[in-house]
Amino acid sequence: MVRFPHLLGHLVQVLGLAVALPSLGRNDNATIALPSTIESTNAQAARPGRWELLGGVFFSPLSVESWGPNRLDVFGVGQDLALWHAWWDGSFWGGWESLGGVLHSMPASISWGPNRIDVFAIGTDSSVWHKAFDGSRWLGWQSLGGILLDSLSVASWGSNRLDVFGVGTDSTLWHKWWTGSRWSGWESLGGLLTSNPAAVSWGLNRIDIFALGSDHDLMHRWWDGTRWNGWVSLGGELQYDPAVVSWGPNRLDVFAVGTDHSLWHRYYDGTRWVGWESLNGTLESLPVAVSDQRGRIDVYAVGVDSAIWHRSYSGTWSNWESLGGPVVLPPAAASWGPGRIDVFAIGTDHSLYHNW
Ligand SMILES: *[C@@H]1O[C@H](CO)[C@@H](O)[C@H](O)[C@H]1NC(C)=O
Ligand SMILES: *[C@@H]1O[C@H](CO)[C@@H](O)[C@H](O)[C@H]1NC(C)=O
């Protein structure tokens, strides 16, 4: 039984590309070509803006992070299994630069403050590797040990604090944290998990973790500043990895694709969990969710037509809109301020495309 199909293999399978991927030449030296468009999708791009080609050759989903207005950092694993990095500084795209490494999972990146980025990934040795940008330079790769499956989730509840989560070979959640001065050991937080975890922090001393349980249900565990609570089942009939977003203290919105391929949503309003609602759609990838301001959420996922589909909440839900495709992996999205969301997609040429 393969409980944790590698995300890429999984997507390639569900998107019907199992026969053969186009064999692409190495492109270690990929440069960012601007401006360019995904011709087939530009006409359908319902968002203001357009797809621009950012190049590269990626076989894993991307991670994208912003430490402040007008700043974006994009990370992906290249064909050479190294971590590749591109960044938007407000005027220009920099990159791609290779940050080295020999990686086996998609990266998980986070920023706990301006000029600071931490990136985590599972190496080909199954242990967790960490690399940090301290404001002036990238520090070397550091092994954090552990034996983890598939992909990681990372959260930060404050300056100089990092919490890393992944599922181990025993199907429990494993946790390691940076206290500000040192790394803890690995601790098991139990569970019997069948998806990768999704972690979020709505504020100081608070972390919420979600993952699918053994019954296709959503499981929840949270750190309240004193202790770990849960696991509690939030029900559902779900597949793929869940996504969670918080637009502020005491608010959580969780999304997951159901076994019926529609998008399901459940939220915590500060006092209770409101029941599941179906947001419809016909999806074939995990969702990604972003909140750029209180009261607003944007959700993206790959549809059965291999296009990226988008739906947003701002008091009521918008209709689904296609942002175009085809893409071969789940999208990534981030916001650097109210009214601004950047979406990243990997096309059938395995290059990175950007829409905003
Ligand atoms: C990288 O690009 C430079 C300039 O175009 C070229 O001379 C070099 O051969 C390239 N390196 C690789 C590994 O493709
Ligand atoms: C989902 O589809 C059903 C049936 O078409 C419709 O009644 C419902 O309003 C839709 N829900 C949302 C949130 O769009």
Automatic annotation (TrEMBL):
<feature type="signal peptide">
    <location>
        <begin position="1"/>
        <end position="20"/>
    </location>
</feature>
<keyword id="KW-0732">Signal</keyword>
<dbReference type="InterPro" id="IPR058502">
    <property type="entry name" value="PLL-like_beta-prop"/>
</dbReference>
<protein>
    <recommendedName>
        <fullName>PLL-like beta propeller domain-containing protein</fullName>
    </recommendedName>
</protein>
<dbReference type="Pfam" id="PF26607">
    <property type="entry name" value="DUF8189"/>
</dbReference>
<feature type="domain" description="PLL-like beta propeller">
    <location>
        <begin position="152"/>
        <end position="356"/>
    </location>
</feature>
